[in-house]
Amino acid sequence: MRPTLQTIRQQCAEQLLALYQKAHAGHIGSSLSCLEILVDLCFERMAASDVVILSKGHAAGALYATLSLSGRMPEAALDTFYQDGTLLAAHPPCSGAIKAIPFGTGSLGHGLSLACGTVFSQKFTGEKFHTYAILSDGDCNEGSTWEAALFAAHHQLAHLTVIVDLNGLQGIGYTKDILKLDPIADKWRAFGFAVAVADDGNDFASLARAHAELAHATGPRCVIARTVKGHGVSYMQDKMEWHYLPMNAVQYDQACGETRANP
Hints:
- The chain is α/β, with parallel strands linked by helices.
- It has a single domain, classed as 3-Layer(aba) Sandwich (Rossmann fold), CATH 3.40.50.
- 40% of the residues lie in helices and 12% in strands.
- The chain is globular, with a radius of gyration of 17 Å.
C-alpha cells in the first residue's frame, strides 16, 4: 500500500532539511511553504508527461527532494547539492540535463512565461500534457507575470495551472508592506483565469478541493494556496529571516524532531 501524502511529505521534509544542513545554506522557509504543493502534484496529480515549473526557484530544495522521492530524478544526484560542478545548485539548473527540470528558474517573474510557452507549443506539436507553474508572492510583484497571464487567457491555455504559494512573506519583509496583492483571487479572475482558493495550502485536503473546483475549466486555471513560510518547523514559521538563514546543529535537530513528531 502506498504511503499517505502526509507520510511522503514528512520524508521529503527530512530530505530537504538534510540537504540544506549539509550545504549550510538558506532558503529553507521558502522550501517548506511549497512542499505540500509539490508533493500533491508529483504523487497525486501529475501524469508522467506533465510538467512542473518552480518559478520561485529559491525553493529548489523542496523540488529536488520531491522529484527524487517520486522517481523523476536520480536520488544519487542529491549527494552533489550545492557542490562545485553540481547539476543541483541553489536554484534549479538551466542545463536541461534533468528531464523533470526543463528550465532554470529563480529570477522571479519568468516562470509563468516559460509555462505558457510549453503549453502553447502543443498547438504545433500535437502533444498533450498539463503544465503546472508554482509562483510566489514575489512573482506576483513582477509585470512579466501579468503579461504572461494575459497571453494565457487570450490563447485559452486550458492545459495550464498556476499555483500561487501565497505565504505573505518575501525576501525583505511582509508582502502587505512591500507591494500589496489583495484581492489577489479577483486579480487572477480579472486576467481571465478560473480561480479557486486553498485556504490552507499546507493541507492536502484543501489543495485537493481547490483543484477539484477547477476540474471543468475551459481555460487557464489558478489555485491560490495560502501557506505558511517555514511550515512545520516552529521557529521558522512566518519568519522573514528564514528566507535566508542556514541552520546550526541545534536548530537542525529541532527541525528534524518536529518533522518526525508531526507526520
